[in-house]
Amino acid sequence: MNSYNNDLDWDEAWEYQPGFTVELAARPGTTHKISSYDPLMVPPVWLAGDPRPRYPHELRIVSRVTTKACHLTPQATEPQWQMCVQ
Predict the structure, then answer these.
(1) Rounded Cα gap, residues 6 and 45, in angstroms
(2) Cα 19 from Cα 35, distance rounded (Å)
(3) Which of 4, 14, 42, 43 would give a disulfide with 55, using CB separation of 3.0 to 4.6 Å?
(4) For residue 74, what are the β-bridge partners?
(5) pLDDT given at position 65
(6) What does the DSSP assignment read for the chain?
(7) What mean pLDDT is predicted for residues 25-49?
(8) Res. 53: pLDDT tops 80
(9) How many CA atoms lie less than 13 Å away from 23 in the CB half-sphere?
């Protein structure tokens, strides 16, 4: 295993997944969706609609829900199940 994999903070990467909603610690009530997490960047967390990356200690996770749930329904013309598209 290379040192890249050994040095990654997998717990942090799991906590700050794209789509999660976070609140800025310095501005309670100001929420953003996580756009991306890049372990090679410092700071590693990019927020949608925010021009600068953030450190995890600047954020508080509000919601880990990333997608809406939907029912899968069979397509009349195709035997495959239609996937839910957001």
Answers:
(1) 20
(2) 6
(3) 43
(4) 81
(5) 79
(6) --HHHHH--HHHHHHT-TT-EEEETTSTT-EEEEEEE-TTSSS-EEETT-SS-B-GGGEEEEE---S-----EE-SS-SSEEPP--
(7) 93
(8) yes
(9) 10
Q: How far apart are CA 26 and CA 53, in angstroms?
A: 14
What b/e sequence results for 55-71 when a residue is b if at least 16 CB atoms lie within 10 Å of its CB, and e otherwise? ebebbeeeeeeeeeeee
pLDDT computed for residue 24 by the predictor: 95
Residue 72 to residues 7, 29, 82, 84: CA-CA distances in angstroms? 40, 35, 6, 7
Categorize the per-residue pLDDT at 74 as very low, low, confident or very high, splitting at 50, 70 and 90: low
Q: Quick check: 24 and 58 in contact, CB under 8 A?
A: yes
pTM metric for this prediction: 0.68
